[in-house]
Amino acid sequence: MDASGLVKKIAEVILDPTITLLFGFAILIFVWGIAQYIRGADEPGKREEGAKHMLWGLVGIFIMLSAVAILEAFKKSIFGA
Q: Could you tell me the CA-to-CA distances from 20 to 34, 58, 68 in Å, in that order?
């Protein structure tokens, strides 16, 4: 196996599943924040906590989308596919 094959295999076996898992976790945090925000609609502290979870969920989603874009650009530039 040559170096490009090794890098491609690492990307397929390690990076892609890890990014997918972290992306799912970010979505879970965002949805949890929505649930907290709705459940604590009458309590400002609970709404604030829910809003923080939603914000960090969105930050995580943005980071994972950026990681996917960077990884795809890397794959296309190195492997041409």
A: 21, 15, 9
> Which structure tokens are listed for 36?
């907290």
Helices (H), 1-81: 3-10, 16-39, 44-79
CA distances from 80 to 45, 49, 67 (A): 51, 45, 18
Vertex 63: Cα angle to 45 and 30 (nearest 5): 35
Record the pTM. Answer: 0.81
Residue in 28, 33, 25, 19 with CA at minimum distance from that of residue 66: 19
Distance between CA atoms of residues 76 and 35, nearest Å: 39
8-54 pLDDT per residue, tens: 788 889 988 999 999 999 999 999 999 999 999 899 999 999 999 99
Reduced to 3 states (helix: H, G, I; strand: E, B; else coil), residue 2 is coil
